[in-house]
């Protein structure tokens, strides 16, 4: 790796969308570095390119130009197969609307990335149960998503994002569908995971209160980074 | 993803829309059912016929002489024969390797009038026919049995008479006590000449007609007198010869050889070959009906899968985001389609089997009531048909799944995740 401690590095990153005759610049030259083990919030008005940046960093979308490095992999030029294994083995995604598979029990949802990686069912079950324990749902392993509250579903989704032991977790408005109290619980959980497991978390939000749980806040506007804030926290505040 | 995971996932996806899945696979069921019923009927009937022919003996060859080309000016004269089944020929065939037996047969024409009489009893007289005794049982009739004595005379001067004819003659005693009874056949020409022939009864047959059976020599003697040709046997020979070969191969070779010698030859195998050709055509036609049903079923599965993919777009996006490859998605949807086809196939096979069994019973009951001595399953499912039915169901599903699965695999994950 050797690229100091930064996990993510983008240079002159652009993403344009063609809408008929119009060209939409979702990303208009983004230079960003994120260190390993940090919780970064991506804020900005709607349409400022937050989701696009997240998707490019997660290997779901490709930049139109510029480079995006995650650890030692440049995603813009990587072949499709590489992107698939990158998403499967190194990234965890958390979505605004949870996106759990309705027919699967909670533990099966958590174990999906492991299933795709070809692990045995017994190994999957064991790992999924310990992850559900970590997110406080140890007793809900056999429940289906419809039998869980929104907050519980999002915690199952968080456990799923952790299943493959990722270096990077990408969350697009993870509290967007939750009331403020459950949202706070989820944010505290995410914060704790970053601390305890040394994963890197990039979270898109338009809610400044949610962003305040992060270590750094990246402000975007019109496809560009406007400002980066670092939140200084006292030892008590963290606890 | 292991094969087990794919199967389990596909299964849970199919069972979440049970009604739709069942209705879709019903299409396949109808197609496979039709094919199974039709083909098992074709196969079954062919098998029953084969069994009947086997009972006759495929190694039998029937040889007939060939009449020479007819001259229009000799139309009213009995035709000359090009080749003759002479006693010498019979002896020659008997000498051949791999021949079990050769039986000469004489056909005493129906138009030759003959009466059976009891000597000394002028009242006891009935018209009879002479049973040529081809030696091949008609598969659609119960073969005659000897109620007493033998079924066919073995020595000249012996006669076998049907029980019915004996009763008509007034001989109503226990059949065993009639053996040894003297009888006469009286022939009368339209010119009024008549001649009687004496015989000893050696057997009573169960034939349901007024028939007698004579040796070939005695039959020839009747004809020779009737046509006033004492050397009839030398000139025209026997009317048929039944040659029993050791096996089918010998029968085949013999057939070719005798045809080359200008004899007319019929072997049961020739008939059977023709029958198989006809059955093949029928099977193909009936199979096509099922094929059409399967074509419709394919479209049904395709429609269901496209609908399922539309409904599950977000799910596909999610799976792709968390690391499912195009191959994973494609395999998953192909498996779902394949399973729909497979279940349709299995149910169709079971249905076809069940209906076949019921119809077999109905047919059996009917044949028993009509006293037709044919038994056997008219609907028969050979092992290959089981494989074909299930395999066809699976293939129909997979083929129907090809396009939808490719479409699902191609979905852009970002767009799919945004899909409502
Ligand atoms: N697939 C797409 N096709 C066309 N335009 C797109 C597409 N995705 C995003 N955009 C446009 O790119 C810009 C940034 O979108 P996005 O990254 O979703 O913003 P945010 O998440 O900050 O609300 C918006 O103007 C949006 O309309
Ligand atoms: Mg967004």
What report would you give on this structure?
The complex is a heterodimer of chains A (239) and B (420). Chain A is globular and about 50 Å long. Chain A is built from nine helices and ten strands. Chain A has one domain (37-62, 78-238): P-loop containing nucleotide triphosphate hydrolases (Rossmann fold). Chain A has 239 residues and is α/β, with parallel strands linked by helices. Chain A starts with 5 loop residues before the first strand and ends with a helix. In chain A, helix 6 (150-162) packs parallel to helix 7 (180-197). In chain B, a hairpin with a 2-residue loop joins strand 5 (114-118) and strand 6 (121-127). Chain B has two domains: 3-55 and 273-418, no CATH class; 60-246, no CATH class. Chain B has 420 residues and is α+β, with helices and mostly antiparallel strands. Chain B contains 13 helices and 14 strands. In chain B, helix 1 packs across helix 11 and helix 2 (18-56) packs across helix 11. In chain B, 35% of the residues are buried. Chains A and B meet through helix 2 and helix 4 of A and helix 1, helix 10 and helix 13 of B. The structure holds adenosine-5'-diphosphate (ADP) and magnesium ion. The site of magnesium ion has 3 residues of chain A, from helix 1.
């Amino acid at each position: 790796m050797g690229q100091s401690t930064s996990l993510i590095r983008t240079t002159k990153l652009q993403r344009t969308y063609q809408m008929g005759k119009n060209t939409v610049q979702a990303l208009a030259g983004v230079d960003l570095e994120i260190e390993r083990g940090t919780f970064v919030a991506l804020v900005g008005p709607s349409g400022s390119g937050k989701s696009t940046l997240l998707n490019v960093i997660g290997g779901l979308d490709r930049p139109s130009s510029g480079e995006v490095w995650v650890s030692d992999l440049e995603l813009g030029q990587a072949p499709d197969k590489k992107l698939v294994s990158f998403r499967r083995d190194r990234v965890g995604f958390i979505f605004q609307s949870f996106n759990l598979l309705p027919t699967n029990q909670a533990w099966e949802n958590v174990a999906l990335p492991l299933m795709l990686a070809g692990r045995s069912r017994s190994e999957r079950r064991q790992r999924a149960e310990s992850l559900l324990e970590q997110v406080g749902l140890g007793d809900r392993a056999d429940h289906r998503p419809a039998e869980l509250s929104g907050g519980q579903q999002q915690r199952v989704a968080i456990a799923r994002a952790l299943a493959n032991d990722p270096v990077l977790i990408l969350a697009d408005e993870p509290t967007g569908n939750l009331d403020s109290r459950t949202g706070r619980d989820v944010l505290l959980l995410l914060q704790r995971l970053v601390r305890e497991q040394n994963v890197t978390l990039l979270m898109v939000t338009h809610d400044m209160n949610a962003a305040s749980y992060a270590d750094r806040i990246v402000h975007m506007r019109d496809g560009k980074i406007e400002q980066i804030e670092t939140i200084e926290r006292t030892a008590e505040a963290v606890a | 993803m292991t094969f087990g995971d794919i199967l389990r996932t596909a299964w849970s996806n199919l069972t979440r829309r049970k009604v739709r899945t069942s209705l879709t696979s019903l299409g396949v069921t109808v197609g496979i059912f039709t094919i199974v019923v039709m083909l098992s009927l074709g196969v079954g009937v062919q098998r029953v016929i084969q069994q009947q022919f086997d009972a006759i003996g495929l190694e039998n060859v029937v040889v007939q002489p060939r009449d020479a080309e007819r001259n229009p000016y000799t139309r009213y004269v009995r035709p000359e024969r090009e080749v003759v089944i002479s006693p010498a020929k019979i002896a020659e065939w008997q000498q051949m390797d791999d021949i079990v037996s050769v039986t000469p047969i004489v056909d005493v024409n129906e138009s030759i009038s003959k009466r059976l009489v009891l000597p000394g009893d002028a009242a006891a007289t009935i018209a009879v026919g002479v049973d040529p005794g081809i030696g091949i049982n008609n598969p659609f009739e119960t073969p005659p049995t000897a109620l007493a004595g033998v079924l066919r005379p073995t020595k000249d001067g012996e006669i076998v008479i049907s029980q019915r004819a004996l009763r008509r003659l007034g001989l109503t005693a226990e059949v065993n006590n009639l053996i040894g009874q003297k009888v006469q056949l009286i022939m009368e020409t339209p010119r009024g000449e008549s001649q009687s022939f004496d015989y000893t009864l050696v057997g009573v047959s169960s034939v349901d007609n007024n028939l007698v059976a004579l040796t070939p020599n005695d039959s020839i003697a009747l004809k020779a007198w009737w046509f006033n040709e004492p050397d009839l046997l030398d000139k025209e020979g026997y009317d048929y010869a039944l040659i029993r070969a050791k096996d089918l191969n010998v029968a085949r070779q013999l057939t070719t050889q005798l045809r080359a010698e200008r004899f007319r030859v019929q072997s049961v195998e020739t008939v059977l070959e023709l029958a198989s050709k006809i059955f093949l055509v029928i099977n193909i036609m009936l199979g096509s009906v099922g094929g059409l049903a399967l074509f419709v079923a394919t479209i049904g599965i395709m429609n269901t899968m496209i609908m399922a993919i539309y409904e599950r777009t977000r799910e596909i996006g999610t799976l792709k985001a968390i690391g499912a490859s195009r191959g994973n998605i494609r395999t998953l949807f192909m498996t779902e389609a394949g399973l729909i086809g497979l279940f349709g196939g299995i149910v169709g096979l079971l249905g076809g089997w069940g209906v076949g069994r019921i119809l077999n019973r109905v047919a059996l009951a009917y044949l028993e009531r009509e006293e037709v001595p044919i038994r056997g399953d008219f609907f028969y499912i050979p092992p290959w048909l089981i494989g074909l039915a299930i395999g066809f169901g699976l293939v129909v599903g997979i083929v129907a799944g090809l396009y939808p699965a490719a479409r699902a695999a191609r979905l852009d994950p970002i767009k799919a995740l945004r899909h409502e």
